[in-house]
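Handoff note, outgoing to incoming analyst
You'll be picking up this chain. Sequence as last confirmed:
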Amino acid sequence: MDDLYKQLARHLDRLPGGFPPTASGVELRILRRLFTPEQAALALHLTLIPERAALIARRAGMDEAAALAMLSDMALKGLILETSRPGRPPRFMALQFVIGIWEFQVNRLTPELVQDVDEYLRTLFDPQVWKKAPQLRTIPVGASLTAPGEVLLYENAEQLLHAHTRFAVTPCICRQERQLAGEGCGKPLETCLSMGGAADGAVRQGRGRYISKDEALAILQLANRHGLVLQPGNSKDAEYFCCCCGDCCGILRNAKRHPQPGRLISSAFYAVCEAELCSGCGECLTRCQMDALALDAGYAAIDLERCIGCGLCVSTCPSGALRLERKPASEQPHVPASSLEMYLRLARARGVLGPGEVARTVVKSGLDRLRTG
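Most recent structure output, in case you need it:
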């Protein structure tokens, strides 16, 4: 049994997001809590290529109907990913642990799973890999943009929403798990936004509910009021938004421990203060999620090594002393054009899924399709 879960752990570790081993074996405890032995064995036969149940069943030596039933159940439980198109059979593919399986466990958490994942996140989150190929990026809250014309479309939360027609909202997995651990921050729970196909998946899995565009835009306003950092997926075609707090978010909590979160988090901006306008009220200190601000001689001073350009300090500065400024061209982060590009960059940063392995996977999938008919 342990060998089976070790195989699954190695399989997940070959995916872009990774699933590295630990001395304590906590990653295996997590897998045993999530996957039955039968599900773990079947998951080993899934790749990053969406494939029909018949093909996966043949590869696993299973009856097609039994494989389809198990794959559908695993997809509903957020263990693998299902893609569907009207009039076509569903297709299934492997799902990485973060961002993926873990976030899909919202509304299914147990104290034991929360404790194990909290222990594991420090191993899973590799600052150097995140710096090279982050899965999320930080964009400013709309109220902090004093010159919207200088902001690119994919840096504007409202514009990212306007590019879609279907929206869903789900509870924040991070605030939900901190709440279950007795360390909740009290900030709104139902704030994570999905758009397009991601919205359909969230509703299909029972993680979220459809909402209108106006409701989605209202959630962005809610995020600003409660000091939540806007973090869409790190691509220009982002299909989801996280609204994060430094108290609960696994990414921000780990970034906050880093001596230079401003260089770790992907962001195009940083905050600046005009001292002659600053009243020294300290409101910005309470809003900053990275401890990037302090009062120096009665004025707000910004540590640019810690500032992640979220704009939360700007949007509530009563004297208008704070503003966002675009980083120099040499410090502008690369934003991948698509999610596929982002995951390929992440895989390269981790040294997995090289061109040879990708080619072999594609060829094998093609041959299996021919054999299946």
